[in-house]
Structure prediction request, 351 residues.
Amino acid sequence: MLRNLRRALAAALLIATALAIPSAPAQAAPLTITNGTQFRDTAGNVLHAHGGGVLKAGGYYYWFGENRNPDNTFRAVSVYRSTDLVNWEFRRDVLTSSSHPELNVANIERPKVIYNAATGRYVMWMHKENGRDYSEARAAVASSATVDGDYTYHGSFRPLGRHMSRDITLYDDGGTAYMISAADENYDLHIYRLTPDYLNVASLVGNFWNDAHREAPAMFKRGSTYFLLTSGATGWSPNQAKYATAPSVSGPWTGWTNVGDGTTFGSQPAFVLPVQGSSTTSYLYMGDRWAGAWGGPVNDSQYVWLPITFPSATSMSLSWHAQVTIDAATGEITGSGPGRRTGSPPGTAAR
Prediction:
């Protein structure tokens, strides 16, 4: 009996130990997405992360984005997570229209999240409007102690009290964070340095593109070169993407260079994600094919993801691929196949 009791205690100890160890994310394998489609999450539901961005934390990629009501007003910032960048699990709506009275009727666009190591908080910046028109042109900020927890809304404002702020992105340059936004009725692009807690604007680094009429900024760094990818300001309709480069965030920045075709393959930039693996680091263009271009609501929008190639250290290139295969473990991203290069409603034939 004593021997059986010892065996039972040992078995119980093994089970308790196993339960106490958190499971590690599964190893990624090469998987393929189809462009010009509405992605679905692991439960089979349409994935709503429009105008969003991706943050890697704890072995997972977290994708934040817009989830709108049928009238295109703000419903939530939704977050999904994945180990392989293809299979996305819905986690929660981390910010909703009931999170703060200011959000009850609003437009919240292009949410981006970065982590502040000094404060231990995840900080989200967004473009905020009143839900009726685009007269506010404000930036909004929220934060959370966990990457996919409830985000506390800290309010909205015009940077430095006076600058309009519409389409935005964030960039963390080794602990110094920047917010880039379209200003002056989208004619200018401003780069701001954030305060150490990432919750406010410290200074205007520069307005390097006066009268450029660009929006949808996406910043990334490859080697020693900073790239800023943008679209023109043509509403829901896609247009020619252009990029500029610089040796530092504060410049000097080059002029604009075209990339992709005249409609960026029927999409608008949302984010550029570096995918670092065991073999290489690839750069993934993440774009939105907005349903507004054919008169649909935002939540009917589709996604276009493409591998970025680099003819030189200071140039980039985008080519169309109907399918893109991502190996998050090795970092390799490849494209293949013909298909829907331009925007079209769901269910229509390729063109």
Remarks:
- The radius of gyration is 21 Å.
- The chain has a mean pLDDT of 91.
